Amino acid sequence: MSQQRTGPTDGPDFPDLPEATVARLPEYLRALHHLAEEGHDTVSSEGLAAAAGVNSAKLRKDLSHLGRTGTRGVGYDVTLLIDQIEQVLGLTHRRAVALVGVGNLGHALAGYAGFGSRGFRIAALFDADHGRVGEHINGLVVRHIDDLPEVVDEESISIAVIATPAHAAQNVADRLVAAGVTSVLNFAPCVLNVPEGVDVRKVDLAIELQILSFHEHRKSALTALPGRAGQDLQRADRLGAEAVGS
Ligand SMILES: NC(=O)c1ccc[n+]([C@@H]2O[C@H](COP(=O)([O-])OP(=O)(O)OC[C@H]3O[C@@H](n4cnc5c(N)ncnc54)[C@H](O)[C@@H]3O)[C@@H](O)[C@H]2O)c1
Questions:
Q1: Hey, which CATH number is domain 95-203, 3.30.70.360, 3.90.1150.10, 1.10.760.10, 3.40.50.720?
Q2: Domain 19-89 is found in CATH 1.10.10.10
Q3: Which single residue of 33, 38, 128, 179 has CA 20 to 30 Å from 196?
């Protein structure tokens, strides 16, 4: 992922952050909530780094972007750090999210209880299939996609999830943008074209598996190499894989 920096709204609540730091903040937040639930008031940078699965130098650098430096010998105040990361991520109120496409994946997402505790509320479900419209899922009624503008406005929805087949996703994205949605999480395996000012993130588990497949393929090729040369290449490969996350 490119090292873009956050946009023109830099200021106390919108620090100029590298995109890789933004991507790690939710990991720190998840780890911090877990530590708070376990009754920890403070955490060392090493402890938080281990809980979040990153190295501690990277964590200290990330948190220094927020103006946070831990107190030597004490570490970070867990509650204060949660507050600050939630401020930066704009999670101080639960954001309303629309989900479009209530098939296999959409059903699973609509029924997932974990969004609520992570700052989001699935506020509306849409589908184009009249057979699905009217279905009740997790306290919500599936609406027809034609109702999108009205519901987006009523529920102040700015983020939407697309879980339709790929062939329908661009049209759905166009309708979402026209209704006022400015951030899209796309599960459909396709590239979406959106106007400037609209953010799209893509989730594709098959791509993640293909990347793991590449590493499996490489590992078996390296272990087949004889002696020292094979060991050196395996070590270089491990270091390279660790560097990818930086
Ligand atoms: N990203 C991932 O890791 C991942 C994993 C599984 C599936 N997928 C993708 O997610 C999408 C959904 O998969 P699924 O198995 O749930 O499919 P599905 O066929 O079960 O569900 C798709 C739903 O979208 C609805 N739909 C179709 N066109 C629409 C439109 N124009 N407006 C609104 N709703 C519309 C259909 O009526 C259906 O209910 C697919 O694109 C699939 O490839 C991605």
A1: 3.40.50.720
A2: yes
A3: 128
Q: In sequence order, what are the residues at sequence separation of 6 or more whose Cβ sits closer than 8 angstroms to the Cβ of residue 214?
A: none
Sheet strand arrangement including 199-202: 136-137, 140-144, 120-127, 95-100, 159-162, 183-186, 199-202
Residues linked to residue 162 through DSSP beta bridges, in sequence order: 100, 186
For 187, other C-beta atoms within 10 Å of its C-beta total: 19
Annotated binding residue at 222? Answer: no
Low-confidence ranges of the chain (pLDDT < 70): 1-15, 68-70, 228-230, 233-234, 237-246
Which stretch of DSSP H or E encloses residue 141? strand 140-144
pTM of the full predicted structure? 0.83
Q: Contact at 8 Å (CB) between 201 and 185?
A: yes
ipTM of the complex in this document: 0.98
Residue 4 confidence (pLDDT): 40
Ranges of each domain in the chain = 19-89, 95-203, 206-244
Supply 1's token pair: 């992922």
How close is the Cα of 142 to the center of ligand 1, in Å?
A: 14
Q: Beta 76-77 vs 136-137: how paired, if at all?
A: unpaired
How do beta strands 140-144 and 136-137 pair? antiparallel
Distance of CA 99 to the CA centre of its chain: 16
pLDDT of residue 3: 38
| Residue 39 alpha carbon to ligand 1 centre in Å | 41
Distance (Å, whole) CA 9 – CA 109:
31
Helix or strand run (H / E) with residue 134: none
